[in-house]
Design goal:
This protein is an all-alpha fold and 170 residues long. Helix 4 crosses helix 5 and helix 5 packs across helix 7. The N and C termini lie far apart (53 Å). The chain is extended and about 80 Å long.
Length: 170
């Protein structure tokens, strides 16, 4: 591999965008702002003061829930994938310089929507938008290759003697 050129990164990103992956198609074809009234209904909370961190846009959190459903991800895994994958980060509406909502924030958000009885309505609305385009949402998976240490097997001295004598130990 040679040295990277000045425009290599831009060329790589444009190739990815021209491929039109599923998340790009969803971003462009679904009117996400139509979800905002329901999201605000489920996410509204009176603030006691303006101190502390600003509220995360509920649309960002909802898109993270959509990713969870589409790719069968846990709260912890969706945070990791949005942080790790440019396509997920772009779909959610965050940039490299933005903080990614953590797993607890995603879980609390889902619970708030559930308590406000709007979560089912939100996902039915999402499914109707994609059905109108002739699409169907099927849950997928991102395979996580986890490496696990395996304990080393140790033979006893008696077993080693049996092996050297061309016999199979018990």
């Amino acid at each position: 591999m040679g040295q990277k050129g000045f425009w290599d990164e831009q060329e790589r990103v444009s190739k990815l965008k021209n491929k039109k992956p599923v998340l790009t198609c969803l971003s462009e074809s679904i009117p996400w702002e139509a979800f905002r009234p329901l999201l605000d209904k489920g996410y509204s909370q009176e603030r006691k003061s303006n101190a502390g961190r600003k509220r995360i846009d509920p649309l960002i959190l909802f898109k993270m829930l959509v990713l969870q459903q589409l790719f069968n991800l846990s709260d912890e895994e969706v945070k990791f994938q949005v942080n790790d994958r440019c396509s997920f980060e772009e779909f959610v509406g965050l940039g490299v310089m933005n903080d990614i909502p953590d797993a607890t924030t995603v879980a609390f958000f889902r619970e708030r929507l559930r308590n406000a009885n709007v979560i089912d309505e939100l996902f039915e609305m999402f499914e109707s938008y994609i059905r109108d385009q002739g699409l169907e949402a099927r849950g997928g998976q991102i395979i996580d290759a986890t490496l696990v240490l395996v304990p080393k097997q140790r033979n006893s001295r008696e077993d080693n003697k049996e092996i050297k004598a061309n016999r199979v130990p018990d």
